[in-house]
Write a structure and sequence with these properties.
Order of helices and strands: HHHHHH
Largest sheet: none
Number of helices: 6
Distance between the termini: 56 Å
Strand content: under 5%
Number of strands: 0
Shape: flat
Length: 102
């Protein structure tokens, strides 16, 4: 909400406004970053599961949010995006869980 003497957020803080406008993608990237930190900490199985969950989160967001709020998560049509990210996320989680420990 901008007052008469206040400039809009996208003018004052364009980077912050961009992150807020792309919040679904920012949320997914944040979860992937946690997974990468786990992999870097030699917890590769947990890290891959977290990254798979990030893909499943992207699937859920793409399925439930309207196109206007999707931002860069909307790449193709909704059915194609949901199918591809859902299958990839599920496969990553299942593969990470089923790799036998060494």
């Amino acid at each position: 909400m901008t007052g008469p003497g206040r400039t809009p957020l996208h003018v004052r803080r364009p980077l912050l406004a961009g992150f807020l406008r792309q919040w679904p993608l920012t949320a997914v990237i944040a979860v992937v970053a946690v997974g990468l930190l786990l992999v870097a900490a030699e917890q590769w199985r947990r890290g891959l599961v977290v990254m798979g969950v990030a893909l499943l989160l992207a699937t859920l967001l793409r399925l439930l949010l309207p196109v206007r709020q999707m931002g860069f998560l909307a790449v193709r049509s909704r059915p194609v995006d949901v199918t591809l990210t859902g299958v990839a996320g599920l496969a990553l989680v299942l593969l990470a869980w089923n790799v036998p420990p060494t």
